[in-house]
Protein: 3-oxoacyl-[acyl-carrier-protein] reductase
Amino acid sequence: MVNYPKGLFAGQTAIITGSGQGIGAEAARLFAAEGANVVIADVDATKANDVASKINSSGGRALAVPGDIMNEAYIPDLVKKAGEFGNGKIHIIINNAGYTWDGVIHKMTDKQWDTIVALHCTAPFRLVREAARFFRVKDGEPRVIINISSTSGIHGNAGQANYALAKAGVVGLTKTIAKEWGPQFGVRANTIAFGYIMTRLTEAKEKGAFVTLPDGEKVALGIPTAQQAAKGQGPVAPTYPDIPLRRPGSATEAAGSILATCSPYMSYVSGQTIMVTGGRNI
Structure:
């Protein structure tokens, strides 16, 4: 057994998008606890700084670089600061930032479609492209890219044509990265497709969570209580009949799957879509 006295990711630098809250924030804490230099990328500056501050005060090493991943000008700044923070190196990118903007096909607007596709496909592509100089290297150190997908991208989902297409798209992007950057540079790329994980995207819509777009429009997040109950989910009828483990996953469990996939214990796994669903859809 290999001993990692300073953590699985000691000396490695990881960019985690959408890490001001939810799965991303949990991933940031887990990676920091395993010795990584963690770059907190989130549109909410207050939340990003709070996550970084808590990691640093706990003996970890984190840097908050707030900004909108949808803003093309933000990405070069994020990569530049991450590279400086990592003493000239970046080892891990986790493309986690995202949200849903649902609508049935015949009522979905171009704005809904374009926003979600840009968020879940174009933004991760731009980040990976910008960081290419840190990954297309031969220094013997591990490099890993994780793109977060969803079961909606694997199986489709009513009311989520935009999200389903975008999440399917990152699977293709991941496989392409693995094929282009694996042979010469040893870069591993994998997709993690989450099922029912308890986050603001799966809480009751009536709680009022929302995302504010750059033009000021608010996008409501969550699942209507009536819709959850019809599926045996949520506070009304929490039986989860379609999940063999009979419960949703936690943000910490979801983040743990990211950590595990990046770890040296999965060093021969690349180009795969790893389903984290509690057994749903098997």
In short: The radius of gyration is 18 Å. The mean pLDDT is 91. The CA atoms of residues 22 and 199 lie 6 Å apart.
